[in-house]
Amino acid sequence: MTIIDAVLGDFFWRALLGGLGVALVAGPLGCFVVWRRMAYFGDTLAHSALLGIALSFLISVPLNLGVVITCVLIALALVLLSRTRTLATDTLLGILAHSALAIGLVTLSFMPDVRVDLTGLLFGDLLAMTRQDLVWIYGGAAFILSLLALLWRGLLMSTIHEELARVEGIPVERLRLALMLMFSLVIAVAMKIVGVLLITALLIIPAATARRLAHNPEHMTALAVVFGVVAVSGGLTLSWYLDTPAGPSVVVTAFLVFLMVYAGARQSRH
Fold it and tell me: Which of 37, 174, 177, 261 is the most buried if burial means most Cβ atoms within 10 Å?
C-alpha cells in the first residue's frame, strides 16, 4: 500500500483534502462575490443546485454535471430576464432561488425509487468524500484557477469600473458569463463540502474576513484562501471532537475567525 493509498483510505483525510481543494478556489472567487456584491446571486445558484440534482436523477446524468448545467441555465435566464427591466434584480433573484429549490424538492418527491440524503445535500456530507469526489474537486479547482489567472486583469477592471472597462475594449459581458460559469462549477464541487444551503457562506465569509486586512486585490485573494483553509481545518477538527455536522462546523469556524479578525482590527484602531 502506497502512502497516497494510506492517506486516501482514511475518511477524515479524504474530507480534509476535499475541503482544502474547495477552499483554494472559493477564496479567490469569493472575493469577486464580495467586490461585486453578488451574495444573493450566489444564493440563487446554490439553491438551483437541488433542481440540478433532481434533473440528474431524472435524465440519468452524473450529479455534478447536472448541477453545473442547471446553474448555468439559471444564470443565463437571470441575465435575459434582467435585461427586460420589468422586475428589480433582487426580486428576480428571490423568485428564481426559491422556485428552483422548491421545484427540485417536489421533483425528488415524485421519484420514490431514488434514495436521496436530503440532509447531506442541503448541509453537506463532507465525511462521505470519495476518491472520485476528490478528482472532481481538484480537476474543477485547477480549471477555475487557470481561468481566473487568464481573465484576472479583465475581471478586476470590469469589477472596479465597468464603463471604463468597456471603453478600454474589455468584453464585459463575456467576462460576466465566464464568472457565472465559474460560480456554477464551484457550487458543483463544494456541494459535498457544505451543502447547497451553505455554499455561499464558504464563498463570502473568508473573503469578507480577508478584506479587513488586505492591502490590494491580490493580497485579499491570498488571505481569503488562508482563511478558507483555516475554516475547513478547524471545522473538521471541531466536528471530529464534538461530533457535530461537518459542513455547518466549517461555516461556524469561518464565522468565528471573521469575528476575531474584525474585533482585533477594531481594537488596533483604538
Answer: 261
**The three cell numbers locating residue 157:** 477592471
pLDDT tens for 244-266 read 888 888 999 999 999 999 888 76
pLDDT for 179-217, tens place per residue? 888 888 888 778 777 777 788 888 999 999 999 898 899
Per-residue cell: 233: 481545518
3-269 is classed CATH 1.10.3470.10: yes
Say if CB 145 and CB 30 are below 8 A apart.
no
Burial of 256 (0-12, 13-18, 19+ CB in 10 A): middle
Pair 98, 47: CB distance under 8 Å: yes
Would you tell me how many other CB atoms lie within 10 Å of the CB of residue 205? 26
How far is CA 33 from each of CA 26, 130, 159, 179, 205, rounded to the nearest angstrom?
Answer: 10, 29, 10, 10, 10
Q: To which H or E segment does residue 157 belong?
A: helix 131-160
Question: Which residue has 474547495 as its cell numbers?
Answer: 22
Q: Any idea where the domains of the chain sit in the sequence?
A: 3-269
Nearest to 72 by CA among 190, 187, 166: 187
Distance CA 71, CA 8 (A): 30
Phi-psi region at 60: left, alpha or beta (left = phi > 0; alpha = psi -120 to 50)? left
**Tens of pLDDT along 55-109?**
888 888 887 788 888 888 888 887 777 777 677 777 888 888 888 888 888 888 8
- The residues, any chain, with a CB within 8 Å of residue 168's CB and separated by 6 or more, are 157
Q: CA–CA separation, 102 vs 241, rounded Å? A: 35
